[in-house]
Design brief:
single chain, 267 residues, alpha/beta, 3 domains, four-stranded mixed β-sheet, 12 helices, 48% helix
Length: 267
């Protein structure tokens, strides 16, 4: 019968006959149908010792679904000396699964500089003079004819550039007016404005509470920080009537929130 199983059989237990499929989490993952094969690309900023097993898991799921060749590439974006970024295979005594691991800072930028869609990745590619490389990329972006494409690529380059360059250099070379037509930039800007408003409401509420009642218990601060912008605005109005920290606790209690959100009876 070939190779025998040599483990101690005195402690044998029956495992579950069905295996549950756990969700897989990654920094960013993409599956592309390219001709008759699947291209699986995963972007990571840090190493992960479970990466090889995860790539095998992805492969099995994809193959079960599509039954076609699958190419897998993990692209590491942020430079580090971690040995985890050198992992490119899952191997046991009976299984070997390999994939390609790309450390972007080791890659020659020539190909990326000659393809507009790859310019954002060139921001992190190998370069003896990174700032000069960013300047070259900015010039190439400005030469893109379609304004929306130019805006999107400039936005992606700005986002990835944050892993290598200072905000000042990025703002200087990748001008904001170029990015304004990008829906990604607009979404990030809107999110930033909302977060700014929320932080402003939070700071104001905590300052007013501390002025009225002194130092606040951590449990209350934690609950206040968890409020949405809309609830913070309501809290800011309500705190003018608070007479004690007990009033704050009651307002923040789930029962009070439920009552406030319940529709009023008509009649």
């Amino acid at each position: 019968m070939g190779e025998t199983f040599s483990e101690n059989t005195e402690s044998v237990q029956v495992l579950k006959t069905e295996l549950s499929v756990e969700p897989i989490r990654a920094d960013f993952v993409s599956f592309l149908q390219v001709g008759s094969q699947i291209l699986h690309i995963e972007f990571q900023t840090v190493g992960d010792r479970d990466m090889p097993l995860r790539m095998l898991d992805y492969y099995v799921r994809l193959y079960r679904l599509h039954r076609c060749p699958i190419q897998q590439i993990v692209i590491f974006l942020q430079e580090t000396n971690s040995p985890l970024l050198r992992l490119d295979r899952f191997e046991t005594n009976s299984t070997l699964h390999s994939y390609r691991a790309v450390r972007l800072w080791e890659e020659d930028p020539t190909l990326m500089l000659n393809d507009a869609t790859l310019l954002p990745f060139a921001v992190l590619a190998r370069s003896p003079q990174p700032e000069e490389m960013l300047r070259t990329i900015a010039q190439k972006i400005e030469q893109i004819e379609l304004s929306k494409e130019r805006a999107n690529i400039a936005t992606y380059a700005y986002m990835l550039g944050g892993l290598r360059y200072s905000k000042e250099i990025l703002s200087q070379l990748l001008r904001e007016e170029i990015m304004r037509e990008s829906v990604t930039y607009q979404a990030l800007l809107a999110k930033g404005i909302k977060q700014g408003l929320q932080q402003g409401e939070l700071d104001l509420a905590l300052r007013q509470l501390r002025r009225k009642f002194g130092e606040l218990p951590d449990r209350l601060v934690k609950k206040i920080k968890a409020l949405s912008l809309k609830r913070l605005e309501a809290f800011g109005e309500a705190l003018l009537d608070f007479q004690s920290l007990d009033d704050v606790t009651v307002w923040l209690s789930p029962k009070t929130q439920t009552k406030k959100s319940a529709p009023k009876d008509i009649g």
